[in-house]
């Protein structure tokens, strides 16, 4: 749970930029850790997916599914009222994640 700062803590922080920097960097480290875990988790799912695709005689690349992911990403970004720059960056990140998944799936096929 996020810690809610009291008014007293907030005014203390305002006068202490070193503390703001230190705390913000600690929080960024925590977020980065979570992101790395989530990226690893998403990429690892490629293992099961490629096994299923081989059994179903499907290609790794699925344009229809990638379009759904693209539309879903835009919908979520709009709901969260993100600005266009942030929205476009998130779309790029999602493209990187699907590419990563495809690369991993190809590696698994080549090992089989
Ligand atoms: O859902 C799939 O079929 C996947 O292989 C996963 C994934 C993705 O990363 O989301 C990757 C490649 C496909 O083109 C579509 C989606």
From TrEMBL:
PROSITE patterns: CHORISMATE_MUT_2. InterPro entries: Chorismate_II_sf, CM_dom_sf, CM_II_prokaryot. Its EC number is 5.4.99.5. Pfam families: CM_2. One of its GO terms (molecular function) is chorismate mutase activity. Transmembrane segments: none annotated. SMART domains: CM_2. The keyword Metal-binding does not apply. GO terms for biological process: chorismate metabolic process. Keywords: Isomerase. Residues 15-109 form the Chorismate mutase domain. The keyword Isomerase applies. NCBIfam families: PRK06285.1. This is Chorismate mutase. It comes from Candidatus Methanobinarius endosymbioticus.
